[in-house]
Amino acid sequence: xxxxTTSLRMDFESHYLSYKQLVDERLQSLIGHSQPASLYEPTHxxxxxxxxxxxAILVMLAAEAVGGTGTAALDAGVGVEILHNFTLVHDDIxxxxxxxxxxxxxxxxxxxxTAILVGDVMIGLAHRTLLATQPPPHLVEVLLxxxxxxxxxxxxxxLDREFELRHDVTLDDYMxxxxxxxxxxxxxxxxxxxxxxxxTTEQIAGLRAYARHVGQAFQIQDDLLDITxxxxxxxxxxxxxxxxxxxxxxxxxxLERVRDGAxxxxxxxxxxxxxxxxxxxxxxxxxxxxxxxLDAARADVAEAIEAAKRDLQVLAETPARDMLVWFAHxxxxxxx
Length: 336
Prior knowledge:
This protein is an all-alpha fold. It has a single domain, classed as Farnesyl Diphosphate Synthase (Orthogonal Bundle). The protein is built from 17 helices and two strands.
């Protein structure tokens, strides 16, 4: 039985990797030798930056899960992936981030003006690539989902920035924000794939709920990795959220649980100074550990993944549905 399970897992992994290769090849074919080079060289730099291509592949897997084919959804998936990378370029400018996936960010390697233009042109490339999909039976729904995804991500990013100035952010506030900023494009990917695969309204609602829970788990896991991973694996500075004073799941939970004593003084110092020096990162990690914040985060990640699996029960029991379950677990078993 164990051998059969291992074999099935490898089949899922091979399927994922084959789709990832298709996505990477399609991304590389988009730019070519386009002019002006001052715009397209940094754009190519972004799109060749690697990553798991989560959103693109989810579009393809969602199409399969409702009875369609993944390859028919390739261009739509690549469009969503480009859109995701656009958000990263502009996020990096707003966060003054020096690196992304272990490489210099666009505004660092070039300049802020170039990075803004690169992000802008990527929105256009995303729409053009999406529209290269053979007209699906639900083209209007696909375009509406795609466009709403852009709006919601911008709203989520705006909320994230507002939270920098607030000391009263609740866990519900935070979960709403990450649902918009991080989860919405994952949800968009599942919805777009469902429509392209000609899924029913009920199936697409299930896919969206699945993606919402996966996105939630992904962001909490990301907050955990920021302070628990190895820096070389993370691809960016460990404890960056602490240094920047970002409102993360861990910080918001700690503010709710820790009311007095030296630990509360440390949290209040972080809020007052909008961050802590790098030397205090071990102190914050210790605080999170002692107050059960890290365990609470891990429990919420596990709960969200279980909810995502339940959401898939509206789909027929097929290998494509099982692939989505594997996909959710794969995303949580990561170190960056």
